[in-house]
Amino acid sequence: MKFSLFQSLLLPFGSEPFECLRLLASPISSFDILTMSVSAEEVAKHNTDKDCWVIVGDQVLDVTNFLSEHPGGKKSIMMFAGKDATEEFDMLHDRKVIKKYGIDEGTVELKGTIKK
Ligand code: HEM
To answer: Do 15 and 42 share a structural domain?
Structure first.
């Protein structure tokens, strides 16, 4: 079970006796509460096939473990390693594939939202 920072901070201050247990049992992840804002400069550092992030829309995605699984091949993603791939991504896919074939499979990780 994953506990968010927010939940941990609240634990000592539960307003009712079982508040702590309720919070512990909650499926909320740290990402639901604390959405990280990531700069384009930070994304640009992750531009190799051992550490590959891309921007799609307002999302920053770590696709390193997805490269070998990508139906469109590793090279097509690597052309955008560390960069904004939104325009090309949208020409070829529905955004829904990110969750369905990446995040739900555990091969794509949402790092946060791009800092504008
Ligand atoms: C971010 C995570 C990504 C996921 C989960 C993903 C998933 C997929 C999937 C499932 C397909 C098969 C076609 C479809 O079902 O739409 C596909 C094809 C493709 N993808 Fe991605 N993709 C990702 C990122 C990218 C990026 C960043 C690029 C570069 C622009 C790219 C380029 C392509 C290409 C060129 C194809 C082949 C299209 C074709 O053969 O017609 N993908 N991708």
So the answer is: no
Residue 16 shares a structural domain with residue 54: no
Residue from 58, 61, 76 whose mutation best tests the ligand 1 pocket (most atoms within 8 A of CB): 76
Domain count, the chain: 2
Candidate of 58, 67, 70 to mutate for ligand 1, largest count of ligand atoms within 8 Å of Cβ: 70
Domain extent, residue 6, equals: 1-34
Please give the ipTM for the structure prediction: 0.90
Answer yes or no: pTM beyond 0.95. Answer: no
pLDDT tens, per residue, the chain with 116 residues: 344 444 444 444 444 455 444 444 544 444 444 679 999 999 999 999 999 999 999 999 999 999 999 999 999 999 999 999 999 999 999 999 999 999 999 999 999 999 98
Residue 50, phi then psi, degrees to nearest 5: -95, -10
